Amino acid sequence: MSVDTYLKGKDTSTYRRIHHEDVTILVAEPLTRYASRVELITRKKLLGRKLTAVAHHQHTAACRH
Question: Against a cut of 0.85, is the pTM above it?
Answer without folding.
Answer: no
